[in-house]
Structure formats: structure tokens, C-alpha cells
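Q: How would the C-alpha cells look for this protein?
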Amino acid sequence: MLTVFANRLYQVLMFLACVAMIMAFVTIGLGVLAREAAWNIQGLDAYAGYSIAAALFLALPATLKQGDHIRVTLLAQRLNAQLRRALEHVCLFLGVTLSGYVAYFSCRLVWISWTTHDVSQGADATALWIPQMFMAIGAIGFVISFVDAWLHHFRGEQFFHTSDEANRVE
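A: Here is the predicted structure in C-alpha cell form.
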């Protein structure tokens, strides 16, 4: 049940990350066009940055599932199966812990920005809780993906989908 929910969540967040990347592309393209046409459009650089940050955080869960995060396997390859499993258990625990820490403080940052009516210092004066919200959503999804990976690990199931190319490189 959690796996079905989690996989659907990864797909939705990756779709939103793609939308954010398209928005970054459009914003940067509009900025280039505006400079060539001598238009003054306030806040384009900030919106491009917000979009890129949103894309990065929203893509974290799906890229973990796809095995696209950098995993150092040099040590793990040299261990026997029992030690390798224990090392992966510890690493997944640390992943849950650290991503939980990031998610907590991301949500806290959104709450503080919301309650204090914090705005960007640029000319656009964007309410900062809006771009920060995407960071928090992505961080929460990242926690869910690490918990999902940890549960797969406990059950002895494969979680990470690595491509043949990734296996050749390692």
C-alpha cells in the first residue's frame, strides 16, 4: 500500500519538477528577450532561481528511486553480504534522519515566512513562503522515499532501480 502511494507520489513530484524546469527555461528566455528589447521586467532572475530550486527539491524522491543519486559503492563491494546489508541499513537510517531534519526545517522556514509575511528583497517582493513551499514539499517527499527504501531493505526487496550504464561505471 505504501509502495503504491509512494510510487504515485514520486511520479507527481517528478512531473511538478519538470513543470518547474520549463518555467525556469521560459523565465530565462523571457529575460534574454527582455534585455534585447530593452524591457524592464522585475524579478525574472529571482523567479528563475525559485523555479530551479523547486525543480531540484521536487525531483529528489524520484531520482532516489531511480538510483540516480551518487552512491559510493567502493567500500560496500569489498564487504561480505552480511556486512554490506548492515552498512546499507545504517546508511538508509542516516538518510531518513538527515532528510527528516531538512524536511522539518524546510517546513519550519515556510511557517516562519508565512507568519512574519516575509518577502523577497528584490523589486518583485514575492512572498517567500511560496517558493519555500516547493522546497518543503520536495523534502517531505525525500523523507518518504528514504522510509520506502528502508522498508524495502527490511523486507529484502530491491528499491533502487539502477541502469546497466550505472552498473558499468561503478
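Helices lie at 2-36, 44-65, 74-77, 81-116, 129-155, 164-169.

The chain has one domain: 2-169.

Upvote if useful.
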